[in-house]
Please model this.
Amino acid sequence: MARQIIIDTDPGQDDAVAILLALASPEDLTVLGLTAVAGNVPLPLTQKNTRIVCELAGKPQMRVFAGCDAPLQRKLVTAEHVHGKTGLDGPQMDDPVMPLQPQHAVDFIIDTLRRAPSGTVTLCPLGPLTNIATAFLKAPDIIARVQQVVLMGGAYFEVGNITPSAEFNIFVDPEAAAVVFKSGVPLVVLPLDVTHKALTSTARIAAFRNMGTRVGTMVAEWTDFFERFDVQKYGSQGAPLHDPCVIAYLLRPELFSGRFINVEIETTGEFTLGMTVADWWGVSGRTANALFIGHVDEVGFFDLLTERISRL
Ligand code: RIB
Ligand code: CA
Model:
């Protein structure tokens, strides 16, 4: 039986590749819906981009919902400097035709978890955790019904990418992240520590372009655009495909490894706001609450990604 998931997302080129990977894997994953959140770019763009990607995947019947347009308590911080003004800069994209669902994303998450048998729906946040935290705060009964939360966010050895100490998804809404990390929900975290090991390369981007498909070409165009930020900043060759690591973990968890540890979210630090304080060495005595992933088999990851994307 395919695993039932909700993808919560702020596209973002890497979100787009993650969504394509999920939609290319119907035998493994049933995407019950996609919920857009403000993050890389404002909500009107993330909900539009989510629909653009679903149409690109040939899945206009997918249900896309708009969620929260700002963090729980703070002003929205966006990342146009990484993703461009549209959030999907690189290739020219047509406006979507498929509809946006009228229901608020938070209510869709709550209703879906209440309707499905307990423990059968996995939440896959790829952006700030505002929608997820709002759902947990509005309907605490759903927390025990969640099969797993598998999210991209945080960092320990890699420290920050938006500030010296914080990763973007957590930094944008640290209070929301604290709600999720303290909720007791079964939690798998794919931080920069692992996503920075899933780097594109000229050859890997060429593999997408050489598919000769519209999807392959778009993925090549997006990763070409997306990598310029990381190459400039880190001097690395290639862009980290952050969000696709979440979906790849669901498809082939054996490609990944990590530790079940305590992870707390800094919500008051002057210089450390949004930091995931990951007790990798077990020194805090605090209760473990997250499987914190540190490593990926990079070749296996790109083989999986390339094979699946070539199906669309
Ligand atoms: O820090 C990387 C994360 O922030 C990714 O999810 C990217 O899409 C942005 O949302
Ligand atoms: Ca994202």
